[in-house]
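Predict structure. Chain length: 244.
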Amino acid sequence: MQAKIRTLVVDDEPVARARVLSLLRDELDIEVIGECESGSQAISAIERAAPDLVFLDIQMPQMDGLALARTLGETMPAVVFVTAYDEYALRAFEVHALDYVLKPFSAERFKSALMHARQHLSQRKAGVPAAPPERRDRLVIKSSGRIYFVRTSEIDWCEAAGNYVRLHVGQQTHLVRGTMGYIESQLDAKQFVRVHRSTIVNLHYVKEVKHSGSQGESLVEMQDGTRHILSRTYRARISDLLTH
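Prediction complete.
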């Protein structure tokens, strides 16, 4: 018989705890080992019972969820943050959260987070090494009250758009608040390269670099057919990367 996933629920609001517990009740592979209403209670419960998985609120009195995760460090179980506040998403993944569920959430959204946790725990049990956590693996996108994530490897190219950066991902576009410099710092320098002060391209999706016009202007043509001016400032960089 497969061992159950020993799970702890931590939230200072009784109604919120009850919601999570009700959704876990019908999951046959889940064993709820307790519930806590504060970070200090959670630390004691984790040290005593060593759960596999914790559903953890962020804003709690005395010690919030992020501080709890940092305090426990490498001894922190797999964690899914469940919160009403979207502004902590980046910091949540800095402490290696598996998922970030915004209240109020649907049963489907909760089950998606639970499935992610199952996959992670199964791989860990099988001895599959986890990839080193890096912020550049995915970017947080906020849109219409939702938070979701874009894997950086799937981004074709990025362009400046005022106080935002527009990410082109296949047929979709997403706006991320921030500067081109910030976005560039989050991306793998071996895969992404600045070709203009307002454009970053993913080398995996570059079709061709060619000269065009009497001024000796260079263009970068992408697999999606878009063309971008290649500034002289960045020409050597992209040439070097494309030849290695």
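Summary: The chain has two domains: 5-125, 151-242.
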